[in-house]
Amino acid sequence: MLTRFTHSGMMELINRGGDKMETNEKKVSNNIKAMLKRYDVTQEQLAERLGLTRRTIIHVVNHPFRYNINYLNSIASAIGCSLNEFFLVI
User: Fold this and answer.
1) What pTM was estimated for this model as a whole?
2) Number of domains in the chain
């Protein structure tokens, strides 16, 4: 998956099939929260799995565009979901 930011502050994702998805930080943040709920993982549990503080997890969830895609992928893996689920419309 390729990722780039557009001039309008949107994140454009191009998956291996060449399909484009655009989203903004608030949508991704809401999707991460939804994935935590769907997979029944608390922020505290996620922090423990990644060896981070809950405060760091809160910051990542609320500001995902400040972190690189590999970091977000680690979070998705710790939740038990795909990174793509952070960027899809739910």
Assistant:
1) 0.74
2) 1
Residue with tokens 């930080």: 25
H or E stretch at 13: strand 11-14
CATH of the domain at 66: 1.10.260.40
Query: Would you tell me how many other CB atoms lie within 10 Å of the CB of residue 81?
Result: 19
Tell me, yes or no, whether 46 lies in a domain: yes
Task: Give dist(CA 39, CA 74) in Å, integer.
Answer: 15
Q: What is the pLDDT of residues 46-65, one digit of tens each?
A: 999 999 999 999 999 999 99
Within a domain: 3: no
Length of the chain: 90
Instruction: Name the residue with tokens 């990722």.
Output: 3
